[in-house]
Amino acid sequence: NEPDRADAENDSATALCLDIIRRYQEWEGLVRSNAWERYPNHMEEIRNIVGPIPEPDKQPGQLSIWLAAVINPLPPLGVSKEIRLAVLSATNTMHRLRIVSDALDDGRGEGRLKYW
Fold first, then answer.
1. Which pLDDT score, from 0 to 100, does residue 115 have?
2. Exposed, middle or buried: residue 14 (CB in 10 Å: 0-12, 13-18, 19+)?
């Protein structure tokens, strides 16, 4: 049944979004606590430029694009692999969210050493 499938996909996207937001918050905490910002208040400036975080249950696609912009800003932080093109080229929301999810996993901990 198509409506049931769409509801299941929406539930999966929302659950993934909530997990990604939790991991993004951890990632941002690492960036700030390890002084990986290029200059003081770099993350704050990025957040001001991209605006408020989209609602995960209503805008999962926008959330993936927002996160790609935050973890790959210009000037770059250098702590996450480049995902902007991949996110923009992805053909559906779940694919975009998985790209962001993978980048957050790669960019935690020793991420600065991997991509700096």
1. 42
2. middle
Looking at residue 112, its amino acid is: R
Burial letters for 71-88: b for 16+ Cβ neighbours within 10 Å, e otherwise?
bbbeeebebbeebeebbe
For the chain, the average pLDDT equals 86
- The set of residues, in sequence order, having a beta carbon less than 8 Å from that of 84 and lying 6+ positions away, is 68, 69, 72
Model pLDDT for residues 60-102, shown as the tens digit of each residue: 999 999 999 999 998 888 888 899 999 999 999 999 999 999 9
The closest alpha carbon to 96, from 49, 52, 61, 53, belongs to: 61
Q: At what angle do helices 2-33 and 60-71 cross, to 10 degrees?
A: 20
Residue ranges of the alpha helices (H) in the chain? 2-33, 42-50, 60-71, 84-89, 93-106, 111-115
* Region 29-45 average pLDDT: 91
At residue 58, what are phi and psi to the nearest 5 degrees?
A: -110, -25
